[in-house]
Amino acid sequence: MTSAPIVYQENEQDKLLVLFLFVDMILSLLPTKTHTGRHADLTDTELVTLALWRFHSGFHDWKHAYLCFLTHHRGEFPRFPSYKNFVMGINRVAVKALFVLGALMYVARKDNTLLKFIDASALPVCKNSRISTHRVMKQFASRDKTHQGWYYGMKLHAVIDSIGNLLSVRITTASVDDRKPVVSMLRGLFGQFVADGRYVSYPLKKLLFTLGKDFVTGVRNNMQQLMTNAQHQLLKRRQWIEIVYSQLKDRLKMAISLPRSVTGMLAHYIYTLLAYQTFKVLSF
Question: Looking at the domain assignment, is residue 268 inside a domain?
Fold first, then answer.
């Protein structure tokens, strides 16, 4: 796969430093552990920073990003490991990247708008013609159908506010009903939640109402219920979450088949979500 060209500007080094300090500030909230054995060539903060810098630089795979780091960032990271150890380190600290993502969503929850949107999106792990030979995500992937047809893989569920901040996310196998993770995803959130017709469920709406949540869904074609003009206007604004998914899947390439292990695939999902939320906070 070819990678997007990168043009280095004078302020790119400043952005890298800002990103490093930002990640280090959040990771400093984690309790420190006494290290035994050989010290790693790169610290956990440096690994998470470089993982996010790959997305900022426009590379879709670790190999091309690694060669770029060796060429352009030897000064900032003089003790660069081998490619194998670098990728293993990136996957190892994915759990800390998940902590950073959780911290950013927690902050966004404290200062979000009353109007929120919820939706799910497909994350194919391979082409349909390769389902029988796919091995990496075989233990977790399943088939499901979208308006574009059948696919094989995982599914991303997300709640965002009206300015595009991620507030809650879940990754499930593709065959999971979109409505199943709704209650857990909306826990701790308040306001008005807008979803499309796939979320229509009277028991779910009644349960959310008892929890103090106003859940507005679209109307299916086979339903006789009519929408009010206010509901129609809200559903038109639901397209905002489609823009967020477009950035995650088209710009940041969240749905790929390159990782060669379950750990690598899950790490890729975490870093993609973190890159989106971080770049939004830092205005990269």
Answer: no
